[in-house]
Amino acid sequence: MNPEAEQPDTTEVEQAGVKPEAKRRAGVPVWRVGKPDAFLAAAVDLARAAIEGITAPSDIGAHIAAKSEGDRLVTHLFESKLPGYQGWQWYAVVTRNSRSKVVTVSELGLLPSADSILSPEWVPWAERVRPEDAQAMEEEPAQADPALDEEPAGNEEPDTDQPGEHEPVGEAD
């Protein structure tokens, strides 16, 4: 496919003095670069109240942004003040039906941002073991204390062959 053939020719529009719509970034759908639905973007209080349903109000900070996720679909982002989640953001996705003024909360949660503290990426055990770790495991049995292998005196059970003490006696056939 020819990428130039897929791009609309905007030279005629620019020459006529008409501004082209929001510039499209590579790999981002057209509807995500536009402005969010004005009615949904104004529903900040509803989004905050919904997040307060899953966390304490003191854990929710300032409103950061309202981002368009599609036609009549907006994500509200709030700063997280939750201990241990520095740089994370609470989110509430709100939506509405066409020609409706009733806002519905679709999804809630906590997301990391670019400034978040995250755990390191998981590494399989086989890749985590280094040669010096394996060598240390081989040396440990050779250096074991022989006194630990012996049982202390007095813990031995007496050897008795009398029935009744250790084995149940069955009826004779």
Overall spatial form: elongated
Output the helix-strand order: HHHHEEEEHHH
Compute the CA-based radius of gyration. 34 Å
Instruction: Please provide the count of β strands.
Output: 4
The biggest sheet, with number of strands, parallel, antiparallel or mixed sense and barrel status, is:
4 strands, antiparallel
Account of the protein in words:
By secondary structure, this protein is an alpha+beta fold. 24% of the residues lie in helices and 20% in strands. It contains seven helices and four strands. It has helices at 3-6, 11-15, 38-41, 44-52, 125-128, 131-142, 146-149; strands at residues 60-70, 73-80, 89-95, 104-111. The protein has a four-stranded antiparallel sheet, covered by helices on one side. A hairpin with an 8-residue loop joins strand 2 (73-80) and strand 3. The longest helix is centred in the last third of the chain and has 12 residues, at 131-142. The termini are far apart.
